[in-house]
Amino acid sequence: MFRIEKISSFNSPELQPYATMKRPLEHERQGIFVAEGVKVVRRLLESHFAVASVVLPEKWLETFRPLIETRAEQITVYLAEKKFLEGLVGFSMFQGVLAVGKMPPPVSPDDILQKSPKPRLFVAVDALTNAENLGALVRNCVAFGVQALIVGETSSSPFLRRAVRNSMGTIFQLPVIEAGSSRRDDRTAQRAVPTLAKTLRDLRARGIRCIAAHPHTDQKILSQADFTGDCCFIFGSEGNGISPPVLEACDEAVAIPMPPMVDSLNVGAAAAVFLYEASRQRKRF
Ligand SMILES: C[S@@+](CC[C@H](N)C(=O)[O-])C[C@H]1O[C@@H](n2cnc3c(N)ncnc32)[C@H](O)[C@@H]1O
Q1: Extended beta strands in 87-147, E state
Q2: Residue 214 CB less than 6 A away from ligand 1
Q3: Is the CB of 96 under 6 A from ligand 1?
Q4: Would the pTM count as exceeding 0.90?
Q5: What is the pLDDT of residue 186?
């Protein structure tokens, strides 16, 4: 079900999410996010995520029509030329195709554990603030079969526009646990999820090995690590790595060996290496 509206002014309240794209906290509070680009918007429309509206230049309408027609919810499709849209959003765009989606209800570690077959594979991020890196990490998680992403209380949301874009829309396939979040699912009155350190201790108590990816540990290097059982990899921030309380909550730390003149890899690259190694050991490929 959808209706088409040609945009003639920026004043409609429904267009506000597009006009406030540089104010992501407002979006987070409203439980919405913006998807950007033809591929990402297509993946959003193919997903089970609720969609509020789509904005596109008229030449894209027939490409998207069949997908929008399959949706059960009422979606407004706003038509506007790219130049006009750039005036609305405040920056230049490649294709001028955008959509507003609704963040899914929060999920708990219990939900995820029930739904995830063994051997389980989870990823957690501690204080990861760069949205592009977070998006790249999400893309790696989906590529290597991660069953859930645990986002620490000091990390950025994977639903920031740049994170959604860099994930190439794969975020719509990955369950996200928001550690330390007070966001509730009103339908199930689900309780808030504890902090990342506490969530990791709870996972360990349930037999999930929590493995910190740490460039400077002398505990173990990647080729010595066993990823065949249930495990959760923890990745740290761009500047300071994994914080002491989160590191303390892990079972062990593992490094990808590096030459002395290199401090570390980009977190997305480190995640790809760890996840490939887990897939290799589990004979997924
Ligand atoms: C840019 S690094 C952080 C560098 C930071 N100076 C430190 O000392 O941890 C971001 C994250 O990527 C992961 N990482 C990067 N290089 C790694 C390596 N060689 N071995 C294991 N993890 C690595 C870690 O989780 C790290 O916290």
Answers
A1: 98-102, 121-125
A2: yes
A3: no
A4: yes
A5: 53
Q: Are 96 and 82 in contact (CB under 8 A)?
A: yes
Structure tokens at 206: 């349930």
Cβ–ligand 1 distance for 246 under 6 Å, the answer no
pLDDT tens for 144-153 read: 999 999 999 9
Q: How far is the CA of 267 from the centre of ligand 1 (A)?
A: 6
| Mean pLDDT for the stretch of residues 222-246 | 97
Tens-digit pLDDT profile for residues 171-225: 999 999 999 876 655 545 455 689 999 999 999 999 999 999 999 999 999 999 9
- Straight-line distance from the first to the last Cα atom of the chain, in angstroms, rounded to the nearest whole number: 41
Beta-bridged to residue 121, according to DSSP, are 231
Residue count (the chain): 285
User: Ligand 1, atom 1: nearest CA belongs to which residue?
Assistant: 238
**DSSP, res 125:** E
pLDDT digits (tens, 9 = 90+) for 31-87: 999 999 999 999 999 999 999 999 999 999 999 999 999 999 999 999 988 888 887
Using alpha carbons, select from 234, 236, 238, 264 the residue that is nearest to residue 250: 234
Please, are residues 123 and 141 in contact by the beta-carbon 8 Å criterion?
Answer: yes
* Other residues' Cβ atoms within 10 Å of the Cβ of residue 31: 14
Contact 270, 237 (CB under 8 A): no
Q: Is the CB of 128 under 6 A from ligand 1?
A: no
- 3-class SS at 176? strand
Cα four-point dihedral sign 33, 34, 38, 39: negative
